[in-house]
From TrEMBL:
<dbReference type="GO" id="GO:0016887">
    <property type="term" value="F:ATP hydrolysis activity"/>
</dbReference>
<dbReference type="InterPro" id="IPR003439">
    <property type="entry name" value="ABC_transporter-like_ATP-bd"/>
</dbReference>
<dbReference type="InterPro" id="IPR003593">
    <property type="entry name" value="AAA+_ATPase"/>
</dbReference>
<protein>
    <submittedName>
        <fullName>ABC transporter ATP-binding protein</fullName>
    </submittedName>
</protein>
<keyword id="KW-0547">Nucleotide-binding</keyword>
<keyword id="KW-0813">Transport</keyword>
<feature type="domain" description="ABC transporter">
    <location>
        <begin position="2"/>
        <end position="234"/>
    </location>
</feature>
<keyword id="KW-0067">ATP-binding</keyword>
<dbReference type="Pfam" id="PF00005">
    <property type="entry name" value="ABC_tran"/>
</dbReference>
<dbReference type="GO" id="GO:0005524">
    <property type="term" value="F:ATP binding"/>
</dbReference>
<dbReference type="InterPro" id="IPR017871">
    <property type="entry name" value="ABC_transporter-like_CS"/>
</dbReference>
<dbReference type="InterPro" id="IPR050093">
    <property type="entry name" value="ABC_SmlMolc_Importer"/>
</dbReference>
<dbReference type="InterPro" id="IPR027417">
    <property type="entry name" value="P-loop_NTPase"/>
</dbReference>
Length: 304
């Protein structure tokens, strides 16, 4: 179990994180979401022991995580951390990078393990390619495989799919998170992308202005976003009195209603259109299955 007990930290006098307090059970997946600059990476670095806390304590089970002032070599065997900027050995192959920390004592087992890891990050066909020849996204996948190679108890991932293209991203997310769950590895992901979190996290925390402003399951946060900031992670939304936060898919076009809007623009989104409209001088976004023409008047109803 990871216990983060009321920690605070600043690189200088200004606090980047204040009174951060949460726990995660072994095997659970937590995501930390927040805008750029909200302190996600800093929080992961603190969990890893890269900096000394100003206040509070962090424990992994009975072990207290210590910063550099108390711990000569940063990091612990039970914990792996994949930073936003990952560092690999460019002149050796993908397989060698992934196997670097695995024992050479049983070469066949090592080989099998490397093959398994290559499969998790979907790089089997690149096993013998030198890392310097890989794209940014492929390098990121090598970094992920290296981090899980020695089966940590807890893994910290900072924007783990940020360099990976959309073709690969979806299946890679499923593959990696499924692997971590199966092995009961506790996982913390810092991200601004809801798709990294919503399907895979047991719990999410939202950072804003140095503090945790919300902490709940993805379902609860999505269904009852307490602030527009929280809703903005999940998709297009409106603030409509007296309904409050209304996602674009919660507005339906109907035959007749007292809510009338005038279409301003339709954006093609593949399996739907996002319609921008004007309702009593308020800009409105809603989803519709077909294009609507500019100037067209529509009746709407809201279903929350
Ligand atoms: P996020 O990962 O959410 O984008 P960061 O943790 O990287 O946020 O940054 C949080 C704040 O701390 C930002 O204001 C950033 O400028 C500042 N910061 C990050 N790293 C350093 C550093 N090494 N020295 C000083 N300030 C930093
Ligand atoms: Mg960051």
């Amino acid at each position: 179990m990871l216990q983060v007990k009321n920690i605070s930290f600043g690189y200088n006098k200004k606090k980047v994180l204040k009174n951060i307090d949460f726990t995660i059970n072994t095997g659970e997946h937590l995501s930390i979401i927040g805008e750029s600059g909200s302190g996600k990476s800093t929080l992961l670095k603190l969990l890893y022991g890269e900096y000394d806390l100003n206040e509070g304590e962090i424990f992994w089970n009975k072990t207290k995580i210590l910063g550099p002032a108390f711990n000569l070599i940063v990091g612990y065997d039970f914990m792996k951390y994949v930073a936003q900027e990952f560092d690999l050995m460019p002149f050796t192959t993908v397989a060698e990078n992934i196997g670097e920390f695995l024992s050479n004592f049983y070469p066949e087992e090592k080989q099998k393990r490397v093959e398994e890891l290559l499969e998790v990050v979907q790089l089997s066909t690149f096993a013998n390619t030198k890392v310097k020849l890989l794209s940014g996204g492929q390098k990121q996948r090598v970094a992920l495989a290296r981090a899980i190679a020695k089966q940590p108890e807890i893994i910290l991932l900072d924007e783990p799919f940020s360099h990976i293209d959309n073709f690969k991203k979806q299946s890679l997310r499923r593959s990696l998170f499924k692997y971590l769950k199966n092995k009961n590895i506790t996982c913390i992901v810092a991200t601004h992308d809801k798709d990294d979190a919503i399907s895979f996290s047991d719990k999410m925390i939202v950072l804003h202005n140095s503090e945790i402003i919300a902490s709940d399951t993805p379902q609860q946060l999505y269904n009852n976003p307490k602030t527009p900031l929280i809703a903005s992670f999940f998709g297009e939304f409106n603030v409509i009195e007296p309904y409050g936060i209304v996602y674009s898919h919660q507005i339906k076009v109907v035959e007749n209603s007292s809510l009338k809007a005038t279409v301003k623009q339709s954006y093609y989104k593949g399996n739907y259109y996002l319609i921008e409209a004007n309702m009593n001088e308020q800009n409105l976004l809603f989803k519709y299955y077909k294009e609507l023409k500019k100037g067209q008047e529509v009746a709407l109803s809201i279903h929350k």
